[in-house]
Write a structure and sequence with these properties.
By secondary structure, the protein is an alpha+beta fold. The chain has helices spanning 32-43, 74-80; strands at 2-12, 17-25, 50-57, 63-71. A hairpin with a 5-residue loop joins strand 3 and strand 4.
């Protein structure tokens, strides 16, 4: 997997980040973890400061469009990105209140 061409690279001073779009050549669909490792190595940034927004491919091609935000610090990333919620078990939770009496 390698970066073949940078399409857009702009600095967003208001949100303290770089917004980059580029083309990746790969034999298979690149995963988010693979892409984060590639970006961190190529752009020399911390993995904690990266947010991969999109990986888009077309059928039958070995090229993928990747959109990523590179924040200046982890605090800036946490301020602007939504936190991912962890899924919990969807079981019935026993109630502590007694059931209403019926007549």
């Amino acid at each position: 997997m390698k970066i073949s061409k940078t399409i857009e690279d702009k600095e967003n001073f208001l949100m303290n980040r770089r917004e980059i779009k580029f083309i990746v050549e790969s034999e298979k669909n690149p995963g988010f973890d693979e892409t984060i490792n590639l970006i961190a190595e190529h752009f020399k940034s911390e993995k904690d400061n990266l947010e991969v927004k999109q990986i888009k491919g077309k059928f039958g091609r070995n090229t993928f469009l990747v959109s990523v935000f590179i924040y200046k610090s982890k605090e800036d990333k946490e301020k602007f990105e939504k936190k991912k919620e962890k899924k919990t078990a969807q079981g019935a939770v026993p109630s502590t209140q007694p059931a209403p009496a019926t007549k």
